[in-house]
């Protein structure tokens, strides 16, 4: 990536600007409260006094390191499905079910991050959007109504996933949701080991269960949109356990999800199914291999390089996997990761949150689908 010579100055300016309180706007949109420049009542003296901070022009694309800088257009007759970990969509309302270190009252997502997430979602223009790290249905609806009211997301699902922090998986859809299912604290077999790495395991001896229950929804694309018969697509939205030493837990979760996938296949081999979300693992890790060895297809399987990185750490941990039935309608060449603001080399993740356009430490992943039933490879 090529940085501009004034990057360090820009970063310093962002820290300063982020700490400044925005002045209230007047009805005509002038936030100075006057038609004259701030601190300068005399137009003849120019537009700035020595006390005025310099104006810094910032190109947001300077901070996009991964993914594509612009979402490709959706092909005629196709629908777009995407997944996005929007990083701690918490509101400022006290949650009485949380306490001590899990209390969310100080974790309200800042306005500039909400705006960054909103911009990314608008750029994506997905018809069906799976999101992770949502506090509640109320928090998601408030965000939708404030920032996404023009997106057509009339159908919203967010259910308690059993997480100790209260975060959930959710779906925003332009199409009706006709089915939902969840497995809160679903038993995955076995117990937690005594050690977590080299340290005592907080969960030692307890049964291993889903840390955050997967969320299954089925959407119906109406006949008016398909040009034929309604098209049904099921999503299993997941957010696997994070942590360097949680591989054993993710492996159990993956095995549990594959049991669900197999049960759906047994009941209806024609069910179109995607497993997508934040896997907190690389495709070479045992947990993701469980899915791939089980017959699911990674829509980015034939891609390499920075354009498919999905996290600010430089890893690809957000995935879209498709079952055999759905592969007939998937357009693999349409899959993309939408690049958003990431920390430049040498800038830590916390400072990156002050950069223009920052919304999340994850980047959205998307793929387009032709909503007409076809045999695999059609």
- How are the strands of the biggest sheet laid out side by side? 3-4-2-1-16-15
For the record, the CATH architecture stands as 4-Layer Sandwich
By DSSP (H or I, 4+ residues per run), the number of helices equals: 8
Poorly predicted runs of 5 or more residues: 1-10, 12-50
Quick one: CATH superfamily?
Endonuclease/exonuclease/phosphatase
How do the helices and strands follow one another from N- to C-terminus?
A: HEHEHEEEEEEEEHEHEHEEHEHE
- How much is the radius of gyration in Å? 23 Å
Task: Give the integer mean of the pLDDT values.
Answer: 85
Taken together, the total number of domains comes to: 1
Instruction: State the helicity in percent bands.
Output: 10-25%
- By DSSP, the count of extended strands is 16
What does it look like?
This protein is an alpha+beta fold and 378 residues long. It has a single domain (69-369), classed as Endonuclease/exonuclease/phosphatase (Deoxyribonuclease I, Chain A, 4-Layer Sandwich). The protein has helices at 7-18, 111-124, 137-147, 223-226, 247-267, 286-293, 324-327, 349-352, and strands spanning 79-89, 128-134, 155-158, 168-173, 177-182, 187-191, 195-196, 199-200, 207-209, 215-221, 231-239, 273-278, 297-298, 318-322, 330-337, 365-369. Helix 5 runs parallel beside helix 6 (286-293). Mean pLDDT is 85; it is low at 1-10 and 12-50.
List the defining traits of the structure above.
alpha+beta, six-stranded mixed β-sheet, 8 helices, 378 residues, 23% strand, globular, Deoxyribonuclease I, Chain A
Write a brief caption for the model.
With 378 residues, this protein is of the alpha+beta class. Helices cover 21% and strands 23% of the residues.
